[in-house]
Amino acid sequence: MSQVAYHKVKVDDIHIFYREAGSTSLPNLLLLHGHASGSYTFKNLIPSLKNSFHIIASDYPGFGESDIPPRSTYEYTFKNISSTINKLTEILKLNTFAIYMFDYGAPIGFHIASRHPERINGIVSQNANLYEEGLGSGFDLTKEYWIEPNNLEKRNALKDSLTPKSIKWTYTIGIPESQLNRIGPDSAILDIHYLSRLNSAKQNEALEIQLDLLLGYKNNVELYPEWQRYLRENKPKLVGIWGKNDPFFLPQGAIAYKKDQPEANIILVDGGHFLNEQIPEQVAEVVKKLL
């Protein structure tokens, strides 16, 4: 499959959108996207990988082109989303695969990997955190909400991080000025668009779903030790490629991977959160070298 193909498949009555590229005879690579985004975040990365891997990049429930089931019928937690994505891999008969984790892709990917270690061929962590020391100042308001989860003022304060201005800022913060022209406007525009989508009950819940997940990220931090144990016990091939100027996930989080997988290859880059947008060709070479 030389071109990217676009599909939808039903997973537990939810239509999940995914991109597919590369021959099915090649090793499988599952791309897991981040916060308030979708599989389109990998649009510049997939062309450099499709001759080496059979690629699946899905949109999570409530994200991108996948269905948005109402919050009253679908539990928007990282554990539940990971269950949906794992079922997608089973439907697509991905018996074994490597996982490319970016941002929210870390908790979703580690939920899957820790439950099915025999299926995982390797892990790429691109600003995908697994250590408390990796949580940067970009999480300060979120941590305040964790302390007072019933405080509506704390919840509403997080909406500022999901305004068009804030979303555009996340794509450029930490990137050297000489490389800012590598960041196109389209991914941020799509993020903004999908945050305004209506769910299947014609309710505008997209923003509330993101707030639910920010609250639920606290559970991921509590599970960090379990996922770290998975690394120690299974020693998957692992590379971390990290923008060292990321205000959300600090480079200390990348370096910490070596505590539990000493053979991990950690690469720190002069960049921000979205290395997949900033230097996709370099990221692709790192992935191919590992896998």
Describe, in plain words, how this protein is organized in 3D.
It is a single chain. By secondary structure, the chain is of the alpha/beta class. The chain has a single domain, classed as Alpha/Beta hydrolase fold, catalytic domain (Rossmann fold, 3-Layer(aba) Sandwich). The protein is built from 11 helices and 8 strands. An 8-stranded mixed β-sheet has the order 1-2-4-3-5-6-7-8, sandwiched between helices. Helix 4 (140-147) crosses helix 8. The protein starts with a strand and ends with a helix. The model has no long low-confidence stretch (mean pLDDT 97). This is AB hydrolase-1 domain-containing protein.
Topology:
Elements: E1 5-11, E2 14-21, E3 28-32, H1 46-49, E4 54-58, H2 78-91, E5 97-102, H3 105-115, E6 120-126, H4 140-147, H5 152-157, H6 164-172, H7 186-194, H8 206-234, E7 238-243, H9 251-260, E8 265-269, H10 275-278, H11 280-290
Parallel strand pairs: 3-4, 3-5, 5-6, 6-7, 7-8
Antiparallel strand pairs: 1-2, 2-4
Helix pairs in contact: 2-3, 3-8, 4-8, 6-7
Please compute the radius of gyration using only Cα atoms: 18 Å
Please state roughly what percent of the residues sit in beta strands, choosing from under 5%, 5-15%, 15-25%, 25-35%, 35-45% or over 45%. 15-25%
Which sheet architecture does the biggest sheet show? 8 strands, mixed
Give the integer mean of the pLDDT values. 97
